[in-house]
Design goal:
This protein is mainly alpha-helical. It has helices spanning 2-8, 11-42, 46-73, 76-99, 106-131, 137-186, 197-201, 206-219, 221-240, 244-251, 260-280, 286-306, 310-337, 344-372, 375-393, 407-410.
Amino acid sequence: MSGTVHLLRNGFVQAVMVSSLFSQLGVWIRNFAVLLFVMEATGGDAFAVSMISVAEYAPMFIFAFIGGVFADRLRPKSTMVWCECLSSLSVFLVFLMLEAGSWRVVFLATLCSSILSQFAQPSGMKLFKNHVREEDAQACMSLLQTIVSVFMVLGPILGTFAYQQFGIEASILATSVCFLFSAAALIFVPSDPNQPKSEANHPSSLFREMADGMSYVFLNKTLLQLSLCFLFVGLGVGLISPLSIFLVTEQLDLPAQALKWIAIPYGLGEVIGGIVTFALAARIAPQRFLMIGLLVDGAGIVLTGLSTGLGLTMIAQFFIALLQPAIFVGNNALAMKHTEPGFIGRVTGIRTPLMTGAMLLMMSVAGILKNALSLSVVYALAGLCFFVGFLLILPLCRHKGKPEPSAAQNQ
């Protein structure tokens, strides 16, 4: 525990934590304010509501890899500060347009900040690589995951409260202020190291750097295993994400309103899991964190699909959420450990859309599979995806996790 307390006193970690807090607060207020406003303005039009998700997720596929390339080219602190400032400015412009009476511009608030986040996220990973010791990387990752987990529970409440109490204009303005405070916190992060002159003066072409990034991942066995593991986790999560309501109405034979009894233990597990992961991060190797998380979540998902009792389903949901942070923390910590600083952005830019794309693909066919097979079978398939991810990273426990020779060295 002394190591984690020491980490909390680190100025870099404190600045990143404060920035993450304001950024998460802004994102959740924006997401729910926009969702509720569009629902109200359109009378619940399904197409308009679906466009919110398009504005949020589409930039991941279009800009994530490009953002990763630029994260490797540019100074990470400067990139993150500018991205947060531009996000704040774009949301403020949306606020001004709302004042003029153009309600459809609320989609721009989500679209612009989602695009900019594709440049900021890989830069954030590079920032950790530059300023955090390798032995502290997992603890830092778990700390940020704890913040994300807490906001997954509190975010919808805060976003709904902001919209219902103050309206869309005030909510959008609050989002802009949150992004601005996030940028201000990042100013206290140590300055970026100077780029080598050869890199700064003679950058290679964008497409060449993208190709180098893909080669780097494919030629590094560990990164390839971790990326494929992320892919299968995305497939598993996507299969079950839209089907929770059917667990209640079909499997448990309860009214739809009883969904909250599944959501409560899941949210509680998320928060506790984030805290426990942070407390144990210095003691447990990241590959073991990842393996335990995959096994428990896979078993919990299968059990959820078979359970016909509310109590057992609640317990399964709690343990799924409890070990979920371990999966993301372990996977990201290993990826950072096995990636050279010059490739952090591109590796992140490849991994993020890989998992998100797999998740969205399965979400689009989950209902079809449920009707063609059964709810229990779909949950069993989702659990199987987690077990496949476990088998993919099993070889990592046979060695001490020493970084492999880089793709650049092998060429």
